[in-house]
Amino acid sequence: MKIVTQVKLIPDAAQASALSATLRTVNDAANWVSEVAFVNDVPREYELRKHTYAQLKEQGLGAQAAQHVIKKVRDAYTTLHANLRAGNLGRKGSKRRVKAESKPITFRPEAAQPYDDRCLSWQYDTQTVSIWTTAGRIKDLSFACAADALKVLQLHRKGESDLIERNGVFYLIATCEVPEAEQYEPGGFIGVDLGIVNIATTSTGYQAAGRRLNRYRKRQLALRTKLQKRRTKSAKRRLKERSRRERRHVKNSNHIIAKTIVTEAERTGGGLSLEELKGIRTRVRLRKPQRVALHSWAFAQLADFIVYKARRAGVPLVFVDPAYSSKECAECGHVDRLNRISQARFACRSCGVVAHADRNASHVLARRGATAWAAGRESRVPSIP
Ligand SMILES: [Zn+2]
């Protein structure tokens, strides 16, 4: 399974200007290669190299950097053509499409540059890298990352990494190929109910309250609205920084929630039953203040994190249809809209059981998961002729 890990570089002033100059140089070069590619009807990489490699070397790029620039440009055109074919830029002749087709692809001065192991080497013990720049190789360049990210890097990093710059900060984005654990046979299923008031509720009793996250989002939204009214450049910049910070915050919370849930499954030898997410936004009708809180990408991200952590740990996972899970009684199976008496409370009209609404839903999902798993196992048994 592929995991992408980002580390932040901590250069001193001289190193920072070398990194910055390097990105600008290679992206200038990429823009030139892109023009050459464009006027030559975007030839294959091999052909493009014949047109550009010698000149890039003459400009002082190393052999590796020159090849990476050429490949980066060719890959960008491949992506563009795939997008055109898929109709992502509109129909033939549409304004957007004509604009994209009528000029060479351009690269921002700080656009990502790929590095292979010959231009970039990692020293995990000292948390440093040695990296090629146009001003020579920088050794002992420190980087920062979380302890478990470092472990993943150390054990599984493979292939190329990208150097990028964002707001004057440099990052390396590394690809890690992490082996998946073998899946165990689950002793039961833990249902995971996702919601707005409670982000996640499990049938084993864990609950991640959304209160703090929602309050945070509301505050961010208020600030955003204020900034949006001002249409200055600095307001725009701060707006961007805000939404980035918010995303970071949500991502962090999602990581913690996902980890807690997967660890719980591992500890109890259970599998996880998750609701299919398509349409969480349309399914839930919202009163206005809640609209602030809900963003489908945040739920999709949480589900993604649970899936990949489960796969890494060998925890069996099934997706089940969440339809009526909030109206069905986990005890007797009676489905009734009136079972759900408020956002938080559930009282079965048939058997009289009273429960926390999200907790009840998580138990319903748990049972659906066990059923789906059993059905899947039966279907795996070869049929007798
Ligand atoms: Zn009941």
Helices and strands in order, then pairings?
Elements: E1 2-10, H1 13-39, H2 45-58, H3 63-85, H4 95-101, E2 113-115, E3 120-123, E4 128-133, E5 136-144, H5 147-156, E6 157-166, E7 169-177, E8 189-194, E9 198-202, E10 207-209, H6 211-229, H7 233-268, E11 271-275, H8 280-283, H9 288-293, H10 296-313, E12 317-320, E13 345-347, E14 354-356, H11 357-380
Parallel strand pairs: 8-11, 11-12
Antiparallel strand pairs: 1-5, 1-7, 2-6, 3-4, 4-5, 6-7, 8-9, 9-10, 13-14
What does this structure look like?
The protein has helices at 13-39, 45-58, 63-85, 95-101, 147-156, 211-229, 233-268, 280-283, 288-293, 296-313, 357-380; strands at 2-10, 113-115, 120-123, 128-133, 136-144, 157-166, 169-177, 189-194, 198-202, 207-209, 271-275, 317-320, 345-347, 354-356. The protein has eleven helices and 14 strands. The model is unreliable at 280-293 (pLDDT under 50). It has two domains: 2-177, no CATH class; 189-376, Nucleotidyltransferase, domain 5 (2-Layer Sandwich), CATH 3.30.420. The strands form three sheets. It has a seven-stranded antiparallel β-sheet with strand order 2-6-7-1-5-4-3. A five-stranded mixed β-sheet has the order 10-9-8-11-12. Strands 13-14 form a two-stranded antiparallel ribbon. The radius of gyration is 26 Å and the shape is elongated. The site of zinc ion (ZN) has 8 residues, from loops. Zinc ion binds next to loops.
